[in-house]
């Protein structure tokens, strides 16, 4: 029998696949296939090249690639599932690979285990609260999932309250489940959010930007007014300042930051600081 010709990067590129490093910070569309850098084995022939990500044991690679939001592994392929800009973050070790994700303007939230979110209590059914988290279905929250809660000492949670918690169960086959305690049984800032303040919704991309460790927006906002602020990975932000006017200003500034440049943002903050 004739030997099968190996699949090369050139043949895959001809079928529509593109090298990931050539489209960084460019718009990618759902259904596109990406080719990731892969180092050859030391005893293999040839140098480094572009190959699709393979998950089978027959392919050995020293490059570890993590797929973030907007990307999905399908067999030995890496497919784009959201429309947006392809981003990449190098690993701290500098060994190649890193994290790839699609930065999109998505507003519909899909629950992910471990995410901290802001929910709204919509109903109480027995010992379970139903919480709207912006997903396709409400999440369940047990009355025992609060710090210090017992059968006799129940938390004071009413329909309409805002809840800040995290997911412990989140997959497509089960109802999402929230808790307001960490692994040590401590609240650690989670629980019922105060009645005052303003809750508003932004895109999921802006939330990830604001929660970045080196985000300058939060540092600049903190210099304007004394405030309390809570970020939910489901695109919800709760903010409270001394006055209603200051609260509305902060909410408008945070919403506008998504489409402003750094210079425009600094001009607005300087004007607000002078007023």
Characterization of this structure:
- The chain is of the alpha+beta class and about 280 residues long.
- About 15% of the residues lie in helices and about 30% in strands.
- The chain has 5 helices and 18 strands.
- The strands form 5 sheets. It has a 5-stranded mixed beta barrel with strand order 10-11-12-14-13. A 4-stranded mixed beta sheet has the order 2-8-9-5, with no helix packed on it.
- A hairpin with a 2-residue loop joins strand 6 and strand 7.
- It is globular.
- The N and C termini lie far apart (about 80 Å).
Summarize this, please?
The protein has 275 residues and is an alpha+beta fold. The protein has 5 helices and 18 strands. The strands form 5 sheets. It has a 5-stranded mixed beta barrel. A 4-stranded mixed beta sheet has the order 2-8-9-5, with no helix packed on it. A 3-stranded mixed beta sheet has the order 1-3-4.
Give the number of DSSP strands: 18
Gyration radius (Cα, Å) is: 23 Å
| Mean of residue pLDDT values | 80
Beta content comes to: 25-35%
- List the secondary-structure elements in sequence, H or E: HEEEEEEEEEEEEEEEEHHEEHH
Largest sheet: 5 strands, mixed, barrel
C-alpha termini separation: 82 Å
Enumerate the spans where pLDDT stays under 50 for 5 or more consecutive residues: 1-14, 39-61
Strand order of the largest sheet: 10-11-12-14-13
Q: Which percent range fits the helix content?
A: 10-25%
